[in-house]
Amino acid sequence: MKVLIADDDDYTREGLVEAIDWKSFGVHEVLQVEDGAKALRIATAQRPEIVITDIRMPKLNGIEFAEQFVAVCPDSKLLFMSGYMDVAYLKSAIQLSAVDYVEKPIKLPEMENAIRKTVHYIAERKAQHVLLDQKMDLERVKLANALRTQSHPADEFRCKAQEIGYPVHASYVCLIVTQFNKGMLVDAVHIQNYWEQHNLATIAEQLDYDRLLLVVALPRPDEEMVRALAEKLCREYSELRIAAGQVVAGLEEVSRSFREAALAMERVFFKPDLCYLTYDPVNYAPQGPRSDIYPEFYRLLKQEPEGLINWMETFCNRVLVKGDQARERVLSMCVTFANALFKERNGVLIRMGKMVQIQDVEKQLNECRTMLEVKAHMLELCHAYQEEFTRISPYSGLIRNVINYISDHCSDVDLDVREIADHVHLSTAHLGVLFKQETGTTIKQYLNDYRLELAKRLILEEHFKVIDISKMSGYASAGYFAKVFKAATGVTPVEYRKKFSQ
Questions:
Q1: What is the mean pLDDT of residues 28-42?
Q2: The listed CATH number (3.20.20.370, 1.10.10.60, 3.20.20.140, 3.30.70.260) that belongs to domain 142-281
């Protein structure tokens, strides 16, 4: 807080500067001037929160100075002091909203009380302004939400707009602003201020953690101006993506512009390099998947798995080039494909390394921000499936059935050779002989190795606790798991994580 002391008496000014503990009042700078004209120049430039001024000064007296000063700095407060108890002066001070009047000769306790009163008054005014600003901001957000959802009659829109000073006779456009890469979110207030700096009234609503809706009022329906300003903002912040609906003529049409902007933003999923996206009704009629997509995928999955990788790459490339699918529909198809891969070969979970549950796969697919990310994810799944298929393909159908059963049920601590043999309707002895002949190992050893390999993968995922890993891998307890793990690897699970997770 700044204070300006204006008095032609050097002794009074310097005495106040030295005698008062200004820091205790939150004052970090005290300015001094000796006449009214200079006081006006300094106060206009420095904008002090408090001006302590003598009423009788050369060039401009205190009242003349104050009359001009309050017009320039209406939020600053005046504290008058004078040895002349003139009623006319007092009336003028009251009209100028002086907080207090201190009589000369100055008594330090009286001056300190007057300053304290002034500081308290300023603090209350600031708090009131903050509350009013917060209330106004909330009303602006409410109006943006109401326009987006079309939840009020048109008359109510206009009334609410008038209450907050938003134009009711203009053209409007909805813009959705998003941050392409997480962790670099540009301040929403800064984005809104950018449009207002170009004399465009704007209200905003945060749609979610990284999408901001702007409803911009335009003096005329100028789409090229909107484009130019949006592209300029994107050049300043390269990670921003802005989608625009069509310019509409009235408040009641804003919801349509919002829906169009939301559709336009869908294109970022397919065209992440575009910074400004507009709605074009010709290009926004999302197509459904071909009727043969799923049968073709399942045929390859069952009969020609070696062709699955090429098929998936072709499918993703086609979706990328056309860009005529809704994002949700594409993700839904890919989640269906992923489920089928895991159902057919549960061993893919181990091959994937970092993904050990189908829920993880679905979550990661839905978090993909572009089709290119989805493509990379799906190709990784298909490669893992191909590896798992190649690993077990030399075996007979019976042994593959056993291996898949172990993959599906390895987390069951009670899984044993008898249960596996019952599953394939053979005796444990007969199955054991057949399994050893084809794989070179016993069923029990294969199960133990499989559980250990799964545990190693899970350990490298730092968000899994050892007790959870032991359960997911089919061990009876965390203590038993740690003992078996160290016997097999020479290190504890914790040591293994420290060694290999870097």
A1: 91
A2: 3.30.70.260
